Amino acid sequence: MLVGLSRTVILFIVASGLSLILGVLRIPNIAHGSLYMIGAFMAFTVSKVFGGGITGYWMAVLLAPIIVAALSFIAERAIFCRLYEREHIMLFLLTFAFALIFGDLVKLVWGAEYRTVSMPRFFQGSIPIFGLPFPIYNFFLLIMGPLVAIVLWLIVNKTKMGKISRAAAVDREMVGAVGINVSLVFATVFVIGCYLAGLGGALVAPIVNVTLGMDHTLIIEAFLIVIMGGLGNIWGALLGALIFGLSQSLGILIWPQFGIIFPYAAVIVVLSFRPTGLLRSTW
Amino acid sequence: MGARKSIVALVIILAILAIAPLGLPRFYTYLIALIVTTGLLSTSLNFVLGFGGIYQFHHAVFYGAGAYGAAIMISKLGYSGWLGFVVGPLVAAALSFVIGLICVRLSKLYYGMLQISLGSLVWAIVYRWYGFTGGDDGIHGIPMPELVGSPLGAYYFTLIVGGLSLLVMHRILNSPFGSTLQGIRDNAVRSQAVGVNVRRHQLAAVVIAGFFGGVAGVLFVVVDNSVFPDMMFWTLSLEITIMALLGGWLTFLGPMLGAAVTVSLRTFVSGFTDYWTLILGILLVLVILFLPEGLLGYVFEVWKRRTSESAEE
Question: CA-based angle B109:B169:B119, to the nearest 5?
Fold first, then answer.
C-alpha cells in the first residue's frame, strides 16, 4: 500500500501540472505525457553526463525538468500562443500533434530500447515500518509530493502572478484591457505546468524502466485524476491522485488481472455524485 | 453544398471505385478498401464532432467494439459470419450508449476527457482478457462467409456497405433530427430554451455514430480477417480526428477525403522511414495553422468567393 503511495505522488505531480494548464488555459494537454517521458529520458542523459551517483541524480532532478520547461516554452511561443482564440478542439489536437512529434523525437534521440537510471546509494535500502521493509526513495517521494503541492498553492494564491493568471482564466480580455500582458502570463503558466510534467518524469526515472510508450498510459491516468479532482484545483488533483492510487493498489490486491478497473469505477462513482469533480475549481 | 450535389458526387466516386479493381493490382484494392473503412470511421466520428459539436475524443473504441463483436461471434462462439456482421455494430451501439450515458451530462472538455478515459478502460479490458479477446495478440484468421471470402468479394462488400452507411448518415443529418443536432452544436442554451431535450439528442447522436463506427469495424474484419487491441487505442481515435480535420470537419465528405490522404500517405511514407508519426504531427500542425477549415472546406470557400465575384459582375 505504501509503495502504491509513491506512485500516487508521481501521478499527483504530473496531474497538477496538467490541471494548472487546463484551469488557466483551458487546454487538455495530451503532450503532457510526452513531456513526462522526455523528463525521464533527460534524467537518464543528465545523470550519465555527471557520472551517475548522487551528483548525477541531483543534477538530473534539477536540470531535466528545466530542459523540458525550456522545450515547452519554445513550443508555446512559436505555435500555441497564436491559437488561444481558437476552438478548444484545435488546441487539443495541436497538443496531440506535439505528442506525436515528441514521441518520435524521443525515438530518434534515445532509441527504442529501455533505459534505467541508477538509484544513488543514499536512497538505496529500506526502513522497516510495521515490520515491513519500506524503500527510502519512497519516503523522499512522499516528502516531495506535499512540497510541490504547497509551493504550487503559494504561487497560485499568494503571488501577483497567480492572481493575474486566475483573473485571466475568467476574463482574458478584461485583464488585457487593464494593461497586463496576458500572453506572457499564459506562457508562464504553460511552462510551469510542463515543468511539473518533467519533474514527475525525472523523479520516476530511478524506480521504473524508462521506455517509449510510458507517456501513453500516464496521460490517461492524469486525465482521470484531474476530472475526478475538479478542473484546475491543485488540492483536487492531490485528492484525485490519492483516490486513484489507492483504488489501483487495492484493486490489484483483490483482483490481479483486472485491478485496473477499480480506479475507473472510482471515477464513475465520483462523477455520478459530483459531475464537476470533488472540489470546486478555484477559479 | 446542396444535399443533391453531395449525393451525386458520392455516386460518381462509388461508380469509379466499383470498376477500379478491373485495372488495378490487388494491393491497391486492399488499400482502397482500407481507405473506405477508415473513412467511414472518420465520417461517423465527424457525425458527432463536426455536426453535433460533441467532443468525442475516443471514437475508435466503437470501431474496435464492432470488430471484436463480429470476430468473437464468429471465431469464439462459432456463429455464422453474417450474424457476426450484424452483432458487431449492435455491440458498438450498446457500448456507446453506456459510455454516452455516463459522459453526456458533462460539458464539452469534461465530456471529451472522460470519454477518452472510459474508452481506455475498454481497451485495457480487451488487452488483458486473453481467454476471450486474445489479449494483445488479437484474433487472426477469422473465417469469412464464402461471398466475402475472396479479396474481390471483400472489396465490393466494403464498398457497398460503406456507401450505404454514408447515405444513411447523410439522410439522418438532413432530417429534422440532424437539423436539431446542428442547432444544439451552434447554441445549446437556446436549443434548450425552445424545448429541445439537448442531452437526449446528443445521446442519440453518439449511439448512431457508435453504430456506424461499429460498421466500420466489421468492414475491417472483412478486409483484414483479423482484430487487435490497437484498433481501440486512443492514438487511433486522434488520428481519425486528424483525418476529419484535414478533410474538413464542417463538410460531410471531408473526413473521407482526409482518410484517403492520410492512409495513402502513410502507406507511401512508411516505405522510406520509421518516423511516420513525426510526419503526421508536423502535418497536423500545418493544417491547424494554415487550413483550419480543412481541404474541402478551403475548396468550398474559394468556390463561394468565385461565384459571388462572378455574380457581382
Answer: 35
Answer yes or no: are the C-beta atoms of B199 and B105 closer than 8 Å.
yes
Alpha-carbon gap, residue B64 to B227, rounded angstroms: 8
Q: Could you tell me which residues of chain B have a Cβ less than 8 Å from any Cβ in chain A? A: 49, 55, 57, 102, 105-106, 108-110, 112-114, 116-118, 120-121, 124-125, 128-129, 233-235, 238, 241-242, 245, 274-275, 277-278, 280-282, 284-285, 288-289, 292
Nearest to B109 among A26, A107, A275 (CB): A26
Contact B47, B205 (CB under 8 A): yes
3-state secondary structure of B74: helix
Q: How much of chain B, in percent, has pLDDT values that exceed 90?
A: 13
Q: Lowest-confidence range among A262-266, B84-88, B307-311?
A: B307-311
- Residue B128: which of A83, A86, A258 has the nearest Cβ? A258
CB atoms < 10 A from the CB of B60, how many? Answer: 27
Average predicted confidence (pLDDT) for chain B = 84
pLDDT tens digits, A224-247: 888 888 877 788 888 888 888 888
Grid cell for residue B131: 481467454
Identify the residue whose cell numbers are 508562464.
A188
**Which is nearest to A56 in space by CA: A144, A117, A143, A140?**
A117
CB contact under 8 A, B278 and A105: yes
Q: What is the pTM of this model?
A: 0.83
Other CB atoms within 10 A of residue B273 CB: 10
Burial class (CB in 10 A: 0-12, 13-18, 19+), A101: buried
What confidence tier does B14 reach under pLDDT thresholds 50, 70, 90? Answer: confident
Taking residue A83's Cβ as centre, other Cβ atoms within 10 Å add up to 15
> What is the C-alpha separation between A266 and A261, in angstroms, rounded?
9
Residue B15, burial from CB neighbour count under 10 angstroms (0-12, 13-18, 19+):
exposed
| ipTM score assigned to the predicted complex | 0.78
Residues B129-155 have pLDDT tens digits of 877 777 777 788 787 877 777 778 888
Do B59 and B111 form a contact (C-beta atoms < 8 A)?
A: no
